[in-house]
Design brief:
It is built from 16 helices and no strands. The two termini are 33 Å apart. It folds into two domains: 1-36; 72-303, MetI-like fold, CATH 1.10.3720.10. Helices cover 71% and strands 0% of the residues. The protein has helices spanning 4-18, 20-38, 56-59, 66-73, 77-95, 97-107, 112-123, 130-140, 147-154, 166-193, 198-206, 211-235, 244-249, 255-258, 261-271, 275-303. With 309 residues, it is an all-alpha fold.
Length: 309
């Protein structure tokens, strides 16, 4: 009589044999993550060393947690962490729902031609460099020749220095995030909409449900697993922030709100050559992100019975 383990092995090899093409397609992704994600993790050892670029990782001496102590005592550290958390939380509140709302709106369009044109226009910003997007924003909001301030002057109001005011800079950061990512982010939700059974809408129409009730009781519940998955993944980067957008919009006048972790790493790690301190910062980021994604997954599984694993 075959053991349970033997039966499982036979089942696995049988499945592998019949789907080997899919596993072959998986190889490039696995190789990519091994080379560019897992092997570089060895570099985290720098955060515990008096790292010298000429001596390398293997010959630099260890200093225990001195880099972390110096990092916590750095005058910009806590403000940098606060700014990163504030911007990411605002993005979570305003930018995360934008693709969902956009997908629901596009789903209600009956003209396929109009839907395709709208989608193409909305996807475009995602493929543009942040330098271009930031240039468009800065020129549009310029107090001298920007169209927004020109209209304000025509209406009798004083011009607003949007990019030199801390509060307005935060607003512009969030709006630019929505502008750049909402169209592309809606693709995954549009794909999820195709998996909803059309018979549910037909039954709802027979029962007298209008378009809004169909969206509320059929479309949104159908999207909920995807929304939960994307939310958990978003929580996993709550203290991580890209480099391009903050740097493209950054200026020293509003550094009190625009200096985020990625800019801190550039200024301290690259410009000052303090690689060990910024590696310690990256180590802390990774630990916090891991804790956040595990916690979000646990709470989601407990309260919604939906999770990634």
């Amino acid at each position: 009589m075959k053991s349970h383990a033997t039966i499982e092995n036979n089942t696995f090899f049988s499945f592998f044999k019949s789907n080997y093409g899919l596993y072959l397609m998986l190889i490039p992704a696995v190789v990519y993550y091994i080379i560019f994600q897992y092997i570089p993790m060895f570099g985290l050892v720098i955060s515990f060393q008096d790292y010298n670029i000429f001596q390398g990782v293997f010959n630099s001496t260890f200093n225990n947690f001195d880099n972390f102590k110096e990092l916590f005592a750095h005058p910009y550290f806590w403000d940098t962490v606060k700014n990163t958390l504030v911007l990411n939380l605002l993005n979570l509140v305003f930018t995360f729902p934008a693709p969902v709302i956009l997908a629901l709106s596009l789903n209600e369009l009956r003209s396929q031609r109009l839907k395709r044109i709208t989608q193409s226009v909305l996807y475009l910003p995602y493929f543009m460099s942040w330098i271009i997007l930031a240039g468009i924003m800065i020129n549009t909001l310029s107090p001298q020749y920007g169209i927004v301030n020109t209209l304000l002057r025509v209406m009798g109001f004083e011009e607003i220095y949007f990019m030199a005011n801390s509060n307005w800079w935060i607003v512009n950061y969030v709006l630019s995030s929505i502008w750049q990512s909402a169209g592309w982010g809606s693709i995954i939700y549009m794909a999820a909409l195709t998996g909803i059974n059309p018979a549910l809408y037909e039954a709802a129409m027979i029962s007298g449900a209008g378009r809004f009730r169909q969206m509320l009781h059929i479309t949104l519940p159908g999207l909920m697993p995807t929304i939960v998955m994307m939310f958990i993944l978003k929580m996993g980067s709550i203290v991580s922030i890209g480099y391009e957008q903050p740097m493209a919009l950054y200026n020293s006048i509003v550094s009190d709100v625009s200096r985020v972790i990625s800019i801190f790493i550039y200024q301290v790690g690259i410009e000052q050559g303090r690689f060990a301190i910024t590696t310690a910062m990256g180590f802390i980021q990774s630990v916090i992100n891991l804790l956040m994604i595990v916690s979000a997954n646990y709470l989601s599984r407990k309260f919604t019975e939906q999770s990634i694993y």
